[in-house]
Amino acid sequence: MKKLLGILLLSLFTITNGTTFAQNDFEIAKNVDIFVSILKELNLKYADEITPGDLVKNAIDGMLNSLDPYSVYYPESQIEDYRMMTQGQYGGIGALIQQQGEYVVISEPYFDTPSQKAGLRAGDRILKINGQSTVGKSSDDVSTILKGQPGTTLTLDIERPLTKEKLSFTIKREEIKFPTVPYYGMLTESIGYIKLDQFTDKASSEVKAAFMKLKEQGMKYLVFDLRNNGGGLLQEAVNIMNIFVDQNILIAETKGKIPEQNNKYLTRSSAIDKEIPVVVLVNEFSASASEIVSGSFQDLDRAVIVGKKTFGKGLVQNVVPLSYNTSLKVTVSKYYIPSGRCVQNIDYFNKDTNGVAPHIPDSLAVAYKTKNGRTVYDKGGVEPDVVTDEVEASTILVTLVQNNLVFDFANQYFVNHPTIAEADQFVVDDQLYSQFLAFVKGKDFKYKTETEDLLEELITVSKQEKYYEEVNPLIEQLKSKIVQEKEKDLLKFKEEISQYLANEIVARYYFQKGRIINQLSYDPDIKMAKQILMDSVRYKSILSDKK
Fold first, then answer.
1. Which residue in the list 11, 286, 288, 294 is annotated as catalytic?
2. Whole-number pLDDT of residue 356
3. Cα 403 from chain centroid (whole Å)
4. Superfamily for domain range 89-177
5. Contact criterion met (CB below 8 Å) for 213 and 194
6. Out of 308, 313, 329, 379, which one is annotated catalytic?
């Protein structure tokens, strides 16, 4: 109990600052005393046994959830999650897992990790870990058990659904280090490509190394991919910008409640290449440090931004070490990029009476100017210079994926085919797609379209309004037509399904790197980026347009 109270007190008091918040000291002390009293009474008198640690964790989580989603408490049991966040590494076996009913299955072993070297495959059902059944456990629970100190061993009992084979593996945990740059290479003889997944403490060094190797291969243009990159360390964003802009250039400024902790982040050294044309790819999942980089590229007119509007996270967190190997990640400030704008999209600091944080309305957006005088705005993320079309997955593809039919077929294909073509060459041809159709047909695949949902709603409303008898013949005709069209969907959306299927199959042989390479061959954003880079007039006009 004493240990838990110490954690609680530190969680509350480490974010106060002497005289600045002296007026809150009594209120904090009073409420801590109330909380401790309640915890003691529960421990003494509650009808059933309680777990004080869980209660305190839930209380802290509730407190932080009332603020913003980025302030997070990490207990000792989640220290590996904290290391993953800051360093891109953790102790474990190196595999993605997912929930499938009552089972947790391996969805993808990472290349050259204990899971892959031991022989685990996508689709393997985890039955036991160290003799303890995992059936019915959540993927989060299983993930926690799989993680641990490097050098420690675990026994994994699995079942391969395709063969009904049951196997046991003894696996030694290792330090799993994820590359922040999972892939880089040449798209053409002159256009290089770098994919950055996260801003860990190694991000800038890996980007720099990739950049230099591509230069050696003849790169004259660069596509820098920040799509689906949720951010990370602010300083790494500054260091990456320093590859492309000279020293003493302001990249970000942080401003918070404590003026003494406000900071300006400037580049520290000479640029490696301040002339190479760059296209930066972003989407709605590019956030935080990704927005500092893409926004700085835009504000400094150093690159053309292509894709979808970014997430809009303009908040900065610091990690505060607490006692007993715990940590508190707390929002301390907002960041502002070179033009002076903040891209924060949601106002967590001014929630309504229901506790809902509103989106900052467009009417409050303020115009700023880039280095060349282009107009940009301060809310809702980074608006790309060239917005690409939104590509929504068809209902049938979403359903195929949700029902694990693509996943299962890829596993079956892997068992029956020892090798395939290189990742950039592999495609699903007509013969292979016919095999997939037969596989789906054998699973008695059914799905419901949005049109059918709306039709059911129409039936309900027509009955309420006493029109059903009159419109029923038309409704039945529409039902029949929908069924007829649905039967054609597997052929109608053949190209889309084939691309996804090819990517899933490639991952069985070439892992994450293979996925990326395979996607590049049909990626519409990549196509747009190449067009812009090959048209110097268009590239320059975008960066000088003062509309």
1. 288
2. 77
3. 22
4. PDZ domain (2.30.42.10)
5. no
6. 313
